[in-house]
Design brief:
The chain has about 180 residues and is mainly alpha-helical. Helices cover about 50% and strands about 5% of the residues. The protein has 2 domains: about 140 residues, 3-Layer(aba) Sandwich (Glutaredoxin); about 35 residues, no CATH class. The model has no long low-confidence stretch (mean pLDDT about 85).
């Protein structure tokens, strides 16, 4: 099967890597404190895998609390569907990992949500309310024991973690007997 011709629906769920972050701080300072001064060598594998998809992970931005970013991503999925949610998620990753932006900043979240056509007023209304706080927190709490991200669950039958290429998913779908497109 050609992984480029495989179609499926994705449902993203929030995961809080570090809920203890209360204020944005330089990501190099944060990673050094969390992983040690050799954090860049420890993350070399992740950087290499990301480079296959055009990401460089320059570690030039801020480590920030991502709770509100998850609310915006969840809101988009609930209102506009998974494809729109994917656009916001991609924009959020780009802002955080590549551009070094503070993804706890409402202006950054408005910019990310705009990629899927979510109006600024809706994002700001969400962020100034308690909407989705309980739902996002519940989903995060359910995943506290995950030791690595990203995490995957396919058709409720198999779960695994870590960065994976498209061929891995195609193989798993075939093993599970999930139909793939032959287009």
């Amino acid at each position: 099967m050609d992984p480029e011709k495989t179609e499926f629906e994705i449902h993203y769920v929030p995961y809080h890597v570090d809920p203890s972050i209360t204020e944005p701080r330089p990501v190099k300072e944060y990673l050094s404190g969390r992983l040690g001064p050799d954090f860049e060598s420890k993350l070399a594998g992740a950087r290499e895998a990301a480079s296959e998809f055009g990401y460089t992970f320059p570690f030039n931005g801020f480590a920030a609390n991502t709770f509100d970013a998850h609310r915006v991503i969840t809101y988009t999925g609930n209102k506009l569907g998974w494809k729109a949610q994917q656009k916001v998620l991609d924009a959020t990753f780009e802002a955080y990992f590549e551009e070094g932006k503070d993804v706890s900043n409402p202006a950054v979240l408005v910019e990310c949500a705009a990629t899927a056509g979510v109006p600024e007023a809706q994002v700001l209304a969400l962020l100034s309310s308690d909407d989705l706080k309980a739902e996002v927190q519940r989903q995060m709490d359910a995943r506290r024991k995950i030791g690595s991200i990203p995490g995957y669950s396919i058709d409720g039958k198999i779960s695994f973690t870590g960065t994976q290429g498209p061929e891995t998913f195609t193989d798993i779908f075939e093993d599970l007997g999930i139909p793939l497109l032959d287009a």
